[in-house]
């Protein structure tokens, strides 16, 4: 075992909010001398793209190593060739780096350890603690038995039955295992099983399978192997191979820990320690690569990076920042029991970050023409606008102002409802209403145009030239300010407005006969093909983030719309629902 001098232990995780049970375990191990250093690992299986639940996992893995002056490996647990692919490896590496973590030269693959794992399996066979079994998968399940409730509804696990091949000699098992490796037997014809206890109350310890025969092409080892180790065998021994001190896993692996320890003991390797934490569960979201893959394959979404997906790539395309995600994960904290986090809290963390960093611009999603009747023909002014009131260093910009503007359709009502303070025309009982055009002038509604069907096509206003940029006499105070863009100078945009992909808070709670896809929200995407924005938006680059004033936060998408229009995705609205929830 390696040893190292250990410096003073800091009180908190980087970006965290205090101590937690994992760090307490690690402190005990360091003080007791069980380990002289800290070495963790993030071990994704390359069978899909990472989602926000993985962010919690590798935040803990990397941050614990950083906190205790240790290291963290990136290891791909690639022992299931049917479902794994190099494209998933590259996607995982890209996402972990984007989140701000660097594994330096510590990139490993379980497939690099196949020979090492095979030799350890042979070692366990020689000790008489593993055997080659001829039972099929279904027969193994039948012999193992299942947990059943008794008359008091208490779950019982009646003893299983030993396989008729359990007592093969060491020599016969060594011979059969070697022949399994050379491809002498058909897929599924034989397995290698650990010999533990078929009456153990933990079903995972009832002679678990260590190796199975699978003639599948592996993306790295090609066709060199036709037997592949099972996760429960490979995982602890790969940890041991790398000298991992603390194998940090989500809570569902707690029941696997006795098996983790058993394989380490029987293989007589480095004594890595497994510690479990509660996984991240979030409302309106599914946290399983299996279910996310189904959404992709069945084309409920456009791909793994669809902005409605909880994948890191989807969140990045939606406009999330690594800082916001890390803030969210650190504030959720590390617990030992599962819980459900409101997605509104993630959005709160996002707004906190975007509010400080996003440039303000004006854009109109549902455009309606506003004509200033008394504006001098052909005149164009440049108005000064603040780029970010939270950041003085962001400076100001010039925006063109003319006699024809685009405003939001909802900012005009021919017959206004009570307490409506935006534009509406006058009548015999009241004058037309006045509003301030953001950064510009106060205008008063004097009428509107309609088409043959009665739909409003334009609003007519008069402006007061003495009210530019916030100036206004006492008799010209208004109750509303609206945004706009100059019609002659506006950039044509396509805007995509996203909502939760799933309508219920718990998408996996389904009625009998239905699946989680029946819980998909029917209107999770609205495409607005004819929006307008300030001229600067035409030059926005992929990933550029903005606050569209009064509307929310938006990001430039990699795609372009019809006619080459830049596409902007709505990241999150301005309304902070979490602040209201937490206040209650």
Automatic annotation (TrEMBL):
Single GO term (MF): glutamine-tRNA ligase activity
Organism: Leadbettera azotonutricia (strain ATCC BAA-888 / DSM 13862 / ZAS-9) (Treponema azotonutricium)
Domain tRNA synthetases class I (E and Q) anti-codon binding per the UniProt entry, residue ranges: 481-557
UniProt catalytic activity: tRNA(Gln) + L-glutamine + ATP = L-glutaminyl-tRNA(Gln) + AMP + diphosphate
PANTHER family: GLUTAMATE--TRNA LIGASE (PTHR43097:SF5), GLUTAMINE-TRNA LIGASE (PTHR43097)
Subunit comment: Monomer.
Enzyme Commission number(s): 6.1.1.18
Domain Glutamyl/glutaminyl-tRNA synthetase class Ib catalytic: 38-355
Motif ('KMSKS' region): 286-290
Residue stretches making up the Glutamyl/glutaminyl-tRNA synthetase class Ib anti-codon binding domain: 359-464
GO cellular component: cytosol
Keywords, ordered alphabetically: Aminoacyl-tRNA synthetase, ATP-binding, Cytoplasm, Ligase, Nucleotide-binding, Protein biosynthesis
Keyword Aminoacyl-tRNA synthetase: yes
Subcellular location: Cytoplasm
HAMAP family: Gln_tRNA_synth (MF_00126)
A Pfam family per the record: tRNA-synt_1c
Gene Ontology process terms (BP): glutaminyl-tRNA aminoacylation; glutamyl-tRNA aminoacylation
InterPro entries found in the cross-reference section: Gln-tRNA-synth, Gln/Glu-tRNA_Ligase, Gln_tRNA_ligase_bac, Glu/Gln-tRNA-synth, Glu/Gln-tRNA-synth_Ib_cat-dom, Glu/Gln-tRNA-synth_Ib_codon-bd, Rbsml_bL25/Gln-tRNA_synth_N, Ribosomal_bL25/Gln-tRNA_synth
Domain of life from the UniProt record: Bacteria
Name under which the protein is recorded: Glutamine--tRNA ligase
Binding site for L-glutamine: 77, 231
Residue numbers binding ATP: 45-47, 279-280, 287-289
UniProt similarity note: Belongs to the class-I aminoacyl-tRNA synthetase family.
């Amino acid at each position: 075992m390696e040893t190292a001098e250990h410096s003073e232990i800091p009180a908190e995780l980087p970006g965290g909010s205090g101590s937690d049970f994992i760090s307490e375990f690690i402190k005990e191990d360091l003080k007791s001398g069980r380990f002289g250093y800290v070495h963790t690992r993030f071990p994704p299986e390359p069978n899909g793209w990472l989602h926000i639940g993985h962010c919690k996992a590798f935040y803990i893995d990397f941050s614990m190593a950083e906190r205790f002056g240790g290291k963290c490996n990136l290891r791909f647990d690639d022992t299931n060739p049917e479902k794994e692919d190099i494209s998933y490896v590259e996607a995982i590496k890209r996402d972990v780096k984007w989140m701000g973590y660097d594994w330096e030269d510590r990139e490993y693959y379980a497939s690099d350890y196949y020979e090492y794992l095979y030799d350890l399996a042979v070692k366990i066979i020689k000790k008489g603690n593993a055997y080659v079994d001829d039972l099929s998968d279904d027969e193994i399940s039948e012999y193992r038995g299942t947990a059943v409730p008794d008359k008091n509804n208490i779950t019982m696990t009646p003893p299983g039955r030993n396989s008729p091949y359990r007592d093969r000699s060491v020599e016969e098992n060594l011979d059969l295992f070697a022949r399994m490796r050379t491809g002498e037997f058909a897929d599924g014809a034989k397995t290698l099983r650990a010999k533990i206890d078929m009456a153990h109350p933990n079903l995972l310890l009832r002679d678990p399978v260590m190796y199975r025969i699978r003639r599948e092409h592996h993306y790295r080892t090609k066709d060199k192997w036709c037997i592949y180790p099972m996760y429960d065998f490979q995982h602890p021994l790969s940890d041991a191979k790398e000298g991992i001190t603390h194998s940090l896993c989500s809570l569902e692996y707690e029941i696997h820990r006795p098996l983790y320890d058993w394989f380490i003991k029987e293989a007589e390797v480095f004594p890595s320690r497994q510690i479990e934490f509660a996984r991240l569960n979030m409302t309106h979201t599914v946290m399983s690569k299996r279910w996310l893959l189904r959404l992709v394959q069945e084309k409920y979404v456009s791909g793994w990076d669809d902005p409605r997906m909880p994948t890191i790539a989807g969140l990045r395309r939606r406009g999330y920042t690594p800082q916001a995600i890390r803030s969210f994960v650190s504030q959720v904290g590390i617990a030992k029991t599962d819980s459900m986090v409101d997605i509104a809290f993630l959005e709160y963390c996002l707004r906190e970050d975007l509010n400080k960093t996003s440039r303000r611009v004006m854009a109109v999603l549902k455009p309606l023409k506003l004509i200033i009747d008394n504006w001098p023909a052909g005149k164009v002014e440049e108005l000064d606008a603040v780029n970010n009131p939270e950041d003085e260093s962001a400076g100001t910009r010039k925006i063109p102002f003319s006699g024809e503007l685009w405003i939001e359709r909802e900012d005009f009502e021919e017959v206004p409802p009570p307490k409506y303070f935006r534009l509406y025309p006058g009548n015999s009982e009241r004058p037309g209403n006045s509003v301030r055009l953001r950064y510009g002038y106060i205008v008063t509604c004097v009428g509107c145009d309609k088409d043959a069907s009665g739909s409003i096509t334009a609003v007519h206003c008069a402006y007061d030239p003495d009210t530019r940029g916030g100036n206004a006499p006492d008799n010209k105070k208004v109750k509303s300010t609206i945004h706009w863009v100059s019609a002659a100078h506006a950039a044509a945009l396509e805007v995509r407005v996203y909502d939760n992909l799933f309508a219920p808070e718990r998408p996996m709670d389904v009625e009998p006969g239905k699946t989680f896809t029946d819980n998909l929200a029917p209107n999770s995407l609205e495409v607005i093909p004819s929006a307008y924005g300030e001229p600067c938006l035409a030059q926005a680059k992929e990933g550029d983030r903005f606050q569209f004033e009064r509307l929310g936060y938006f990001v430039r998408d990699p795609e372009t719309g019809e006619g080459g229009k830049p596409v902007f995705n709505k990241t999150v609205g301005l309304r902070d629902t979490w602040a209201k929830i937490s206040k209650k």
